């Protein structure tokens, strides 16, 4: 009885506490500062920001909402994606073409949103493929990969894909130096012979189309990360280097010998002028340029065979080296364009260079020798200050637009907030665990939206329920609107996010496409009217012009297909409503399904191997009669005389 009473008592007190809490919440908002409330986006409500996280070794880009951490979409970029048929459908296979043939995967690192006047404009997002060097442009009205350009003479395309203040250029720098042009030579003759190509790819202001403007052939260092100048430093681009020792083996020891490596400061305006006046050397180079056309719904791959290279010593005043300790990784420029931050990953302190001091030192011709003909400025002459952080292993820095910077520390697992100008540490918060990049929406622009920072961690360990030896990486969301950072939320990410880019939701929502217009469909095999469906044989090739609308394929019965045929299913989705795709899959298909958006045409090729009657069906639950959305293909022996015929629903 006593226990019973006690229970009632406890229960009663608990109830009182709950109701008390609720009262507080409605009366004086005592709970409004809770972390849970700050990330809670109620059912039916929408997030405040988009966040685009690179997928690392997934090769793709994932889209999240902030503050909820909900994942909205995975955008296939460099990797085949059976979920939609990207990289499998005839229309998208050309997007993954390279000079090495079809490369259906890459390692995607650094997304960057296009800018106008140094502010995010939300038109496109660029991302680099690290392994087989490529830069992709994703259209932010369709969230589809619209273009991929291969980068020749590059290897480990890592100091990429950062854009200049008006999206004049998307820049790609090589991590590995290699023989340029590639050739058969002994590896131990690297030093002095290999080159590091920094590639400036121009972006057409209207359509976004990319073209390699020039490649700067730099000394054979490793070019790790980069960022554009902005405001007063617009016209410059900054790259961190490591392995200035030019070691080709045991780099973990041999590339850590020099006390200082460099940040390379590139005056791209000067080089642009030089090449516009006929400077530079044309060099044969083989690379693919793949463009997706939104109206024909088709990608085309064109091989290019020449690039314009520039020898930095031929353009006086265009390239300088800023000594920076100690194998720097991140290279970040603050919103005013005055400070260039080099995160020496083997040091405790951050090095901040001053753009004004750099210009003064250049004008005063105060050099500390040269490397391969490129002048080296004096460390003390360009140094703005050092942040005595107390952390270990600084990697990347972002800015809140209120005079503060936030740097990740991989080894000490923390984000450190410090002040630009005073270099004082204001706050530090642990991350779980081993943080790499971080992202503040607009943090790489003149106008950051300094409300949240997302830390992208490399190690997850005990943060989530175990999923066997492999865990997804973990991101953490901090509120940075106050003096102190507040950890709000953990959420899993997909692949390995390196960098990310974010923007206010309304920048994209107003331009977001809902459907493709059927009357604008210019796909050569589209069926745009209800009676246009047909099946056409051309030797061993059979083209099926198929249409879909809830809940029917036209045609849904096809006979006269033979073993040895190559059957092209060209499927046009006649829906004109938002979010009504139809899928297509046929038994034994050696690729993936297709997911066809309203108004779009996509093609799957099927080479039937066995005689029989094989079903196909819609893979996306589209209506109450989705299960009825199906059909058959009769496959006869190779030498049969079965007549080609199909049903049109009469
Ligand atoms: S990296 S964790 Cu590929 Cu950007 Cu620094
Ligand atoms: Cu169409 Cu399910």
Give me the CATH superfamily of the largest domain. Answer: YVTN repeat-like/Quinoprotein amine dehydrogenase
The CATH architecture of the largest domain is 7 Propeller
CATH class division of the largest domain = Mainly Beta
Ligand inventory:
(dicuprio-$l^{3}-sulfanyl)-sulfanyl-copper, dinuclear copper ion
Q: How many discrete domains?
A: 2
Q: How far apart are the termini?
A: 79 Å
In which range does the helix fraction lie?
under 10%
Strand content: 35-45%
Helix-strand makeup class:
mainly beta
Q: If you compute it from the alpha carbons, what radius of gyration comes out, rounded to the nearest whole angstrom?
A: 28 Å
Could you describe the 3D structure shown?
This protein has 650 residues and is mostly beta strands. It has two domains: 49-509, YVTN repeat-like/Quinoprotein amine dehydrogenase (Methylamine Dehydrogenase, Chain H), CATH 2.130.10; 518-647, Immunoglobulin-like (Sandwich). 10% of the residues lie in helices and 42% in strands. Strands 6-7-8-9-17-18-13-12-11-10 form a ten-stranded mixed sheet. The protein has a six-stranded mixed sheet with strand order 41-40-43-44-38-45, with no helix packed on it. Strands 35, 36, 37, 39 and 42 form a five-stranded mixed sheet that branches. It starts with a helix and ends with a strand. The structure holds (dicuprio-$l^{3}-sulfanyl)-sulfanyl-copper and dinuclear copper ion (CUA). The site of (dicuprio-$l^{3}-sulfanyl)-sulfanyl-copper (RUQ) has 10 residues, from strand 26 and strand 30.
């Amino acid at each position: 009885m006593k226990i019973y009473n006690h229970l009632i008592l406890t229960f009663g007190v608990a109830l009182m506490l709950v109701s008390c809490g609720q009262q507080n919440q409605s009366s004086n908002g005592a709970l409004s500062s809770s972390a849970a409330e700050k990330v809670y986006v109620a059912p039916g409500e929408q997030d405040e920001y988009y966040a685009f996280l690179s997928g690392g070794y997934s090769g793709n880009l994932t889209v999240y909402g902030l503050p909820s951490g909900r994942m909205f979409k995975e955008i296939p970029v460099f990797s085949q994606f059976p979920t939609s048929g990207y990289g499998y459908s005839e229309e998208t296979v050309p997007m993954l073409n390279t000079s090495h043939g079809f490369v259906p995967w890459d390692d995607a690192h650094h997304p960057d949103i296009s800018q106008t006047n140094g502010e995010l404009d939300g038109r496109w997002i660029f991302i680099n493929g690290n392994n087989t060097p490529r830069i992709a442009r994703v259209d932010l009205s369709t969230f589809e990969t619209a273009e991929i350009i291969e980068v020749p003479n590059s290897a480990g395309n890592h100091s990429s894909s950062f854009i200049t203040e008006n999206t004049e250029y998307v820049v790609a720098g090589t991590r590995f130096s290699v023989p340029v042009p590639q050739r058969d030579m002994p590896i131990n003759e690297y030093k002095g012979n290999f080159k590091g190509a920094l590639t400036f790819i121009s972006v057409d202001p209207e359509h976004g189309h990319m073209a390699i403007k020039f490649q700067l052939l730099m000394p054979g260092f490793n070019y790790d990360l980069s960022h554009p100048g902005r405001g007063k430093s617009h016209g410059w681009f900054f790259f961190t280097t490591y392995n200035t020792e030019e070691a080709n083996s045991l780099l973990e020891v041999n590339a850590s010998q020099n006390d200082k490596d460099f940040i390379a400061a590139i005056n791209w305006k000067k080089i642009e002028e030089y090449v516009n006046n006929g400077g530079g050397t044309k060099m044969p180079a083989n690379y693919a340029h793949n463009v997706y056309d939104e109206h024909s719904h088709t990608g085309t791959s064109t091989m290019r065979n020449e690039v314009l290279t520039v020898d930095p010593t031929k353009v006086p005043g265009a390239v300088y080296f800023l000594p920076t300790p100690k194998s720097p990784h991140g290279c970040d420029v603050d919103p005013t364009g005055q400070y260039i931050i080099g995160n020496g990953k083997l040091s405790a302190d951050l090095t901040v260079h001053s753009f004004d001091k750099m210009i003064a030192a250049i004008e005063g011709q105060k050099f500390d020798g040269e490397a391969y003909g490129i002048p080296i400025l004096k460390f003390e002459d360009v140094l703005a200050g050092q942040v005595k952080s107390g952390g270990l292993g600084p990697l990347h820095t972002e800015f809140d637009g209120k005079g503060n910077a936030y740097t990740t520390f991989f080894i000490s697992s923390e984000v450190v907030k410090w002040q630009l100008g005073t270099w004082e540490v204001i706050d530090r918060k642990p991350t779980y665990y081993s943080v790499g990049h971080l992202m503040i929406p607009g943090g790489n622009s003149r106008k950051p939206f300094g409300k949240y920072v997302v830390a992208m961690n490399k190690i997850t360990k005990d943060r989530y329920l175990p999923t066997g030896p492999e865990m997804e990486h973990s991101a953490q969301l901090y509120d940075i609107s106050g003096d102190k950072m507040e950890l709000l939320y953990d959420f899993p990410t997909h692949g390995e996010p390196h960098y990310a880019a974010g923007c206010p939701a309304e920048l994209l929502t107003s331009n977001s496409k809902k459907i493709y217009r059927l009357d604008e469909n210019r796909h050569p095999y589209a069926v745009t009217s209800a009676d246009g469906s047909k099946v056409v044989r051309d030797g061993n090739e059979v083209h099926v012009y198929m249409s879909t609308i809830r809940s029917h394929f036209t045609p849904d019965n096809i006979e006269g297909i033979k073993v040895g045929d190559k059957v092209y299913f060209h499927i046009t989705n006649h829906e004109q409503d938002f979010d009504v795709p139809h899928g297509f899959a046929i038994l034994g298909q050696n690729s993936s399904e297709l997911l066809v958006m309203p108004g779009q045409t996509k093609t799957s090729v099927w080479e039937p191997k066995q005689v029989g009657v094989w079903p196909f069906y819609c893979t996306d639950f589209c209506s109450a009669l989705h299960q009825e959305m199906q059909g058959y293909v009769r496959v006869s022996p190779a030498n049969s005389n079965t007549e080609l015929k199909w049903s049109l629903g009469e």
